[in-house]
Design a protein that fits this description.
Elements lengths: L2 E3 L4 H14 L3 E4 L15 E4 L6 E5 L4 E5 L4 H9 L3 E2 L8 H4 L8 H7 L6 H4 L6 E8 L4 E5 L12 H4 L7 E9 L1 E2 L3 E8 L3 H12 L7 E5 L1 H5 L13 E8 L1 H15 L5 E4 L1 H12 L6 H4 L5 E5 L5 H9 L4 E6 L4 E6 L7 H11 L2 E6 L2 H6 L8 H14 L15
Parallel strand pairs: 1-3, 2-3
Antiparallel strand pairs: 4-5, 5-9, 6-10, 7-8, 7-9, 11-13, 11-14, 12-13, 15-17, 15-18, 16-17
Helix pairs in contact: 12-13
């Protein structure tokens, strides 16, 4: 069993990393572990548990700025800023339903390390676009900082973009400063019922290219929609194509009318009002139809990023070859693909489909033995792998942080 180190301060983190270097120990970097099962299984000598770094250090609602220790829970931050009518606009997902973990365990440090954004990604950007600055300890045992607390701060290199999606392989984050934004006064969701995937993609494209300022565009085919419990949405046994509008009430009402008129040719339209709309988009954000409790934790789940207009073709290339279920988000730019259990998570099928239409795929859920045997993250070509190696060497030359989590040997 690996040794668990639980630092309470940033200085403790630095000391722990220096100890690891001196002892030749590798370290798994962990917050609350909500996304621990994503990536290749950890094979480390010790665990650097950052959950003790939990505190909102600064919150200035009028300046739209918040600083928090890396182990601070997203739930705590969202509750605090909601009291001031604000939100995390990148809508960080709760991975617990997908991975069978405890709800509400995600941290602000993990949000940046994974760079997972919810449905509002198409309008507000990803987690990396909301980080103003951070402090961290590199694999050299050195504390470093990037950015600052001002929204207009442009000091030095924007290393937050590099940390985003690095999955703890470059540095141990200790504190982040993020921008928060006003929460929209109200929202509604315009839904189209019963569309096939290709028609749904066309409808979402029409909505996104309109003047209606859509902040969420998702398509749940009938099988995915049927897993929404009664009352959670329009659980009618038909596919649901959902388009979210947010803002002040008069603007939302006007844009709703315009959007309904522009989509009339696609078929039956309905509207989900504010309270139910908020609930629906939480379920879409967390990919609730494919939750482990509803579908089985052994069923592989892939996250595919592709060109929105190609989404239906990517999905068809997979579903024509094997039994699979698909959920479309980001107007088709994000596909969640649920497959039947297999020894290799249908990796060749998925990689072939993505290569044929463009994009990249990440295996989000599968048994540890499967994740150890295949590439969980998109394989890199020679040139990109060389860049990745140089970046790793710059921040973590001894490869002590999460070795092999993303790619073997990195």
């Amino acid at each position: 069993m690996s040794e668990v180190i639980r630092p309470r301060t940033a200085n403790d983190v630095e000391a722990a990393v220096q100890w690891g270097l001196a002892q030749g120990k590798t370290m798994e970097i962990l917050g609350h572990g909500s996304k621990r099962a994503i990536g290749r299984p950890a094979q480390t000598d010790s665990t650097l548990d950052l959950s003790g770094l939990s505190q909102v250090a600064l919150y200035e609602p009028q300046e739209l700025v918040l600083s928090a220790k890396a182990g601070t829970s997203i739930v705590e931050i969202e509750a605090l800023i909601a009291s001031e009518g604000q939100q995390l606009a990148f809508e960080p997902m709760n991975a617990a339903p997908l991975l069978g973990g405890l709800p509400g365990r995600g941290t602000i440090g993990g949000a940046l390390a994974a760079n997972l954004a919810g449905p509002r990604r198409i309008k507000a950007g990803a987690a990396r676009d909301h980080v103003l600055g951070f402090s961290a300890v590199s694999g050299r045992g050195e504390t470093f900082k990037s950015g600052g607390r001002g929204v207009k701060n442009v000091t030095g290199y924007d290393l937050s973009k590099l940390m985003a999606g690095s999955w703890g392989t470059l540095a141990a984050l200790t504190e982040l400063t993020i921008k928060v934004l006003p929460r929209p006064e109200t929202q509604v969701t315009v839904v189209l019922l019963g569309l096939e995937n290709a028609a749904a993609v066309r409808a979402m494209t029409t909505a996104m290219t309109s003047s209606c300022d859509v902040s969420g565009a998702s398509h749940l085919p009938a099988r995915a929609a049927s897993r929404l419990a009664s009352g959670e949405a329009l659980a009618t046994g038909r596919a649901v194509t959902a388009l979210r509008l947010e803002g002040v009430a008069p603007s939302v009402a006007h844009r709703k009318a315009v959007l309904q008129a522009s989509l009339r040719s696609f078929g039956e339209i309905d509207v989900i009002e504010e309270a139910a709309s908020r609930g629906l988009w939480r379920l879409i954000r967390d990919v609730a139809p494919f939750a482990a409790a509803r579908t089985g934790a052994d069923r592989p789940l892939w996250r595919i990023i592709t060109t929105p207009t190609q989404a239906a073709e990517v999905a068809r290339a997979i579903t024509d070859a094997t039994e699979a279920e698909v959920l479309f988000d980001w107007a088709g730019g994000l596909l969640w693909v649920l497959l039947t259990a297999s020894e290799n998570a249908h990796v060749l099928l998925v990689r072939r489909a993505v290569a044929g239409f463009g994009g990249h795929a990440t295996l989000v859920r599968a048994p540890a033995a499967v994740r150890a045997a295949i590439d969980v993250f998109e394989p890199q070509d020679v040139a990109l792998a060389a860049v990745t190696k140089r970046v790793k060497e710059a921040f973590d030359p001894k490869h002590i942080f999460n070795p092999g989590r993303m790619w073997a040997g990195v």
